[in-house]
TrEMBL record:
This is Transposase. One of its GO terms (molecular function) is nucleic acid binding. Residues 2-162 form the Integrase catalytic domain. It comes from Solidesulfovibrio magneticus str. Maddingley MBC34. Pfam families: rve (PF00665). InterPro entries: Integrase_cat-core, RNaseH-like_sf, RNaseH_sf, Transpos_IS3, Transposase_IS3/IS150/IS904. GO terms for biological process: DNA integration. Transmembrane segments: none annotated.
Amino acid sequence: MQIDRPDQVWCADITYVPMKRGSLYLVAIMDWHSRAVLAWRLSNTMDADFCVAALEEAMNQYGVPEIFNTDQGAQFTGQEFTRVLKEAGVAIFMDGKGRWMDNVFIERLWRSVKWECLYLRELETGTQARQALVNWFRFYNEQRPHTAFDGRRPMDVYRQGQKAPKAA
């Protein structure tokens, strides 16, 4: 399938955030076309609530995607998360088991956020982690040039694509 416009396919995934003592969990909602991170949340548990909150924030701020892709994690296959998508009329797709390449754009995001932000710090508190991520995601979306887009930034690609006429 060719992904050629914003809001055609969004995806989500969870990764861990290493802390001095333990870890937190980070979920992000990403637009596949632009690679823009539309919303994210941190949690100290792996329940679905923080994933649903990120999804609802993204949909409230940016609208509704045509398709939503995730892995088969319990947070994404559970009733809470899928209900939000179904009520909005979004088609739900899930990666095959063990197929990280099915969601490669967000897997690449995790590599970047860990090596460019998280691994550079010894985070002691959730507040420190949240502030580091606020700064990094702002940089990633609004300032960091992306090689897939000839140096344009993800949110520039997202906004530009939203203004373009939609194909019938």
